[in-house]
Amino acid sequence: MTHLIQNILTMLRASEWMPVTAARVLIGIFFCISGGTKLFVKTQFAVLEKTMVQIQVPFPHATALFVATVEFLCGAGLALGILTPLCAAMLTADMLVAIVTTSVHSIQASGFLAWLDDFLYLPEVLYVLILVWLIFSGPGRYSVDGLIASRIGLVGLDR
Question: Residues 23, 148, 95, 72: what is their CA dihedral angle, to the nearest 10 degrees?
């Protein structure tokens, strides 16, 4: 029985690249679409710019342009697995700023546990968790980063 459990665990560990790749690609597509919409659809950019004005960010137009560009380019980078840790770190910073400046203010709960429950329910918190996981886990073997790593003989990035 112990041997069977060890085999199952080994098989699961060998398949670890699948959820890593799926998470990287899907969150990358999400951010690429979100950033692209903000960049290329005037009404969506106007909403982002209005948000920047409301939270009193200096240079709201330039900041909105920067945020949308980061989401678009870093999302594309994650989807393809290019510069995965850098893209994930940039998007993590973007999400942390969004949480602090807008999302956390939407929580109307009374009491710490209710507030924490509502906070953890925010989608941005989940995005941060996934992005931090990608910073530490790397892109997985099916990525441009993994392909480059295997070509130049780096160990560990191609798993």
Answer: -100
Residue 134, helix vs strand vs coil: helix
Rounded-to-integer distance, Cα 66 and Cα 35, Å: 10
Residue 31: closest CA among 65, 63, 77: 77
Count Cβ atoms within 10 A of the Cβ of residue 15 and give its class: 0-12 exposed, 13-18 middle, 19 or more buried.
exposed
Strand intervals (E) in the chain = none
What single-letter amino acid sits at 131?
A: L
pLDDT in tens, 136-156: 988 877 888 878 877 887 655
Please write down the HEC assignment for all residues of 38-99: HHHCHHHHHHHHHHHHHCCCCCHHHHHHHHHHHHHHHHHHHHHCCCHHHHHHHHHHHHHHHH
∠ CA 76-105-96, rounded to 5°: 30
pLDDT attached to residue 44: 97
Q: What is the pLDDT of residue 123?
A: 94
**How far is the C-alpha of 108 from the C-alpha of 37, rounded, in Å?**
29
